[in-house]
Amino acid sequence: MRRSLWVGGFFMLIMAILPARLPGESDPVQKYRSILWDHLTALCDLGPRYPGSEGHAKTRAYIRNVAERYADSWKEQAFVARVGYAEELPLYNYELTFKGTGDKPPILLGAHYDTRPFADEESNSQKEARPIVGANDGGSGTAVLLAMAQYFHENPPERTVQLVFFDGEDWGRKGSDEYFLGSSYYAEQLKKEDKSTWPARVLVVDMVAQKNLKIFKEQYSFRSSPSFIEFVFDTAKELGVDQFVPMLRYSVRDDHLPFIYMKIPSVLLIDFDYPHWHTLEDTLDKCSADSMLAVFRVVLETVRRV
């Protein structure tokens, strides 16, 4: 009996000190590398996806199809934005909910799915009026959320997760306030709800597919919630994801701002050192599945730990 107890104890000790995954053992997250890339490729194949375009309508159908297949519940939030040079602009947000197995308050993971209706960072004035494909800017964050829908369907989270696809982030012209239309509307509707239903955290993903990805700490995120952004970057460090650089860099106005104004801890993950931003060169060949997978890993682990 003593020998059996000793052997059993020794076995438990060995199991405790062994790594969770042995060298060469399959990585359950690795399969999402191809899933991420397939989503991004499919989105780019739809062409420019600005509000009112054929590509936009097809993207909405694509998101709805994923929602129907994987989400516990989902809703379309249709609204009309009043903008200076287009009287009424129909827009659509999508919220996919994955119910948590525990009782923690929800976390919102967001990305904008629309693309820029004009290439106003082009040096050639003849190209400025043309819409962009937005592989990285608009495509990458959307692809990450679409892949997460499948992941959370297959691996129910402890904390309820809301995947929110924002519309109209990239509509406005330089110098205007006509950006973040979808997230601003979503936040305004959220204000009408009881605070107990608000997400405890917001994590926005944008422009995360470029090759040689480097994500620095964004300034608005750091000022609004230093503890949350440190948590995200500490998670990346523990995972060995070196695409996350624990230094402050840009202040970027994006879909996290409406939630920061509501005092909800909100972080933006973005690589703003992207030479093809708002140009016709923001195409699939500038992107990397490995970059998206790195962000995918960090976000999943953040959701699990936070």
Structure description:
Residues 97-302 form the Peptidase M28 domain. One of its GO terms (molecular function) is zinc ion binding. With 306 residues, the protein is α/β, with parallel strands linked by helices. The protein has a single domain, classed as Aminopeptidase. The chain contains nine helices and eight strands. It has helices at residues 2-17, 32-45, 54-70, 135-154, 181-191, 219-224, 226-239, 257-260, 289-305; strands at 73-83, 86-98, 107-112, 161-166, 201-205, 215-217, 244-248, 266-269. Helix 3 (54-70) packs parallel to helix 4, helix 4 (135-154) packs across helix 9 (289-305) and helix 7 (226-239) crosses helix 9 (289-305). Residues 1-24 have low confidence and may be disordered.
